[in-house]
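Question (not urgent): is this output format expected?
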Amino acid sequence: MYISKSMNIKTIIEKYPETIQVFKNIGFKGLENPAVLEKLADISLEKAMMIKKEDVDVFLGMLKQVIEGVQREDNAPKEATLMGLLPCPVRIPLLEGFEKYLSDNPDIKLKYDLKAAYSGLGWIKDEVIDKNDIDKLADMFISAGFDLFFDKDLMGKFKAQGIFKDLTGIEKYNEDFENENISLKDPRGDYSMIGVVPAIFIVNKALLGDREKPTSWADILKPEFARSVSLPIADFDLFNSILIHIYKLYGKEGVRSLGKSLLSNLHPAQMIEAKEPVVTIMPYFFSKMVPEKGPKEVIWPKEGAIISPIFMLTKAAKAKELDKIIKYMSGEAVGNVMANQGLFPSVNPRVKNPVNGRPMLWVGWDFIYENDMGRLIKECEETFNEGAKE
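Got this back:
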């Protein structure tokens, strides 16, 4: 702000229209009229106050007070909105930490709704995507959702408009995700992530018979494991990611073989108690429920655990309002809860992930940008179902 006694009335009002009412209070009229303002172009504030018999220093202070008040209001953070789904195993500790952070930062104006992952994303497809209404989409959105985020008919159509931007400020992801085998950070700078859900095997050795223990994704596609594998079909995000990765690694026939291997479709929480499957594929978190002594063994696939990313989309236009929330959600505190309590490896470079250097499989950004992911997922689902019926 710059304002002085020597400035003319026209300049002051044009630069700071909020001062009009202050001038009106001491008798100025017609200030909204350009012709009147033009006549005031040759009258300095000091001269005007002499004519009106007002103390110029007092009046100047009043003008500055009004201007500063408007500037504070303009610079104050506007209310932002946050919606999303949090992985069930860590939703409560994440919410507790988030609510404490908000209470410690009362200047943050935020309306949020963070549901459990099992709630599903039906609402966003019905209310936002189908109606093509980006205004109904939260300023910040957190969820896994392989098909949702990449399908050109779903969230992908908003991404194509340049609405989203990675605002985390993380230049390089955790070394578990940035090495010679994997590069998880979006090179185009649109999508950001906070972590991943890895898929691993639980092998019931008591049911193997004369079969060799499967240690790779290729193994479970072999004929000897037909009707022997339980898959997390109910977990759409992870299942779709598994389909896409198998397709990339082993082609359409690999997806068909995966369908042939299907014995049962269980929620991960049910898989631990399942008696029949020789192999269950589940999020790494549920491996904590496997007894140390017993017939079941946790296997980390030698090609790597297939991952389903947990995305954090942020509207570029809301960078200012979201700044503190973005820094918190992508920060070390959230990353540690994800990694230590949920066994969901974090992308934050300061977090020590529970993978001990074991590999993870990522389909790759080139593959994503070169394919129509929505169409490809549907084709993979059809091929998988064909195999499951054979």
